Structure formats: C-alpha cells, structure tokens
Amino acid sequence: MWQARDRETGDHVAAKLLLMDDVKRYEREIRALRLLSPSDRIAAIHDASDHDGRPYLIMGWIEGDSLQEVLRREPLPRLERVLHWTGQICEGLAHAHREGVFHRDVKPANIMVSPAGNVTLVDFGIARFVDSTFTAFPEDRAAAHRRRADSAAEHLPRSGRPRHVGGPGGAGRAHRAVG
C-alpha cells in the first residue's frame, strides 16, 4: 500500500498494487466496496483496474494507524476509547450487513484508527455476499442486497441478555454483548 495523490482532485489516496496470486481476493474486495454506499466507517473505493496486467485498487487515504499498531503502543487502552471504537466498528459492520456484505475478517490489522480516534474498516478481501445474483444496474444490485439483508435480519434475536461487568467502574452495571 502506498500513499499517492489523485491528479484530478489533489486528494491523498491509497494505491494498493496486488500480487497475481491474490486476484480472487482482489476481485472480491472490489465487488464488496462497490456494493457499499458511502460510509465514514468503511474504506472508500475510487478506482480499480490494471496496469500492464497488474491489478491495482485506489482507495481514500485513511490517516492514522491500524488498531493492531495502536494496541502495540498502548496494550491496555482506556475503557472509554475501547467502547468508542467498538461502537464505530459495529456501525460499519451494520452498514455493510444492511447492504448484503459480510466482512468475515474483522481483526485489529483491518481496522484503521484516525488521530482523532475514529475507526474505518478496511480489507474486504474475503467478504461474502447475501446472494450472488447480479442485475445490470448497480442500484438494483444494492436494493436487492438490502432487501435480502433485511429479510435475514428478521430471523436474528433483537438483543442479547444483559451481562454484568465487574472491575473498576463496572460493578453492577448491565451491558449487552456485541455480536
């Protein structure tokens, strides 16, 4: 991944040159990102093509570090930060799920944290989709995925059982599990 500048807009972008053995993963990531409507919690795709037979992907540049790097520097972050990140990760996943895209590789290395502490999900290379049927128009595909995701969501439990969390400041407070 390299930082580059868009010649037309002057914006910083991320250029991802893919290895030839990752072609299926690359195609899946592009498909996932193109299906998703814009969200502050998911990396934005600008362009995808190939140059001299080598596929590449151009995405919005995300200032900051992966959550993996943040946790290396600060192994025990404050609870408030963790809850903030968790909420934003859930927002991004909920957005993707509503549109029929399931990330399947959520881990600290695939979560970017901005200097302001906001998170963005990246690397949809092993994503799965609600259905594999495609129509000719992207807006029809997205609508079909949203309908199927809404239908699937009807069969999920509305909320988890409250859990009591111990420790400083958490004793006696009920929290719902994420997931």
User: How many domains, as an integer?
Assistant: 1
Number of strands: 11
CATH superfamily: Transferase(Phosphotransferase) domain 1
Radius of gyration: 18 Å
Mass-distribution shape: globular
- Helix-strand topology string: EEHEEEHHEEEEHEE
Do you know the CATH topology? Transferase(Phosphotransferase), domain 1
Across the major sheet, the strand order is: 1-2-4-3
- Named at the architecture level, the CATH assignment is Orthogonal Bundle
**Poorly predicted tracts of residues:** 133-138, 155-176
Estimate percent helicity. 25-40%
Beta-strand fraction estimate = 15-25%
Can you describe what's shown?
The chain is α+β, with helices and mostly antiparallel strands and 179 residues long. The chain has a single domain (2-157), classed as Transferase(Phosphotransferase), domain 1. It has four helices and eleven strands; from the N terminus they run ββαβββααββββαββ. It has helices at residues 23-35, 67-73, 79-98, 138-153; strands at residues 2-5, 12-17, 45-51, 54-60, 65-66, 101-102, 111-113, 119-121, 128-129, 162-165, 173-176. The chain has a four-stranded antiparallel sheet, with helices on one face. Strands 5-7-8 form a three-stranded antiparallel sheet. The protein has a two-stranded antiparallel sheet with strand order 6-9. A hairpin with a 6-residue loop joins strand 1 (2-5) and strand 2 (12-17). It is globular. It starts with a strand and ends with a strand.
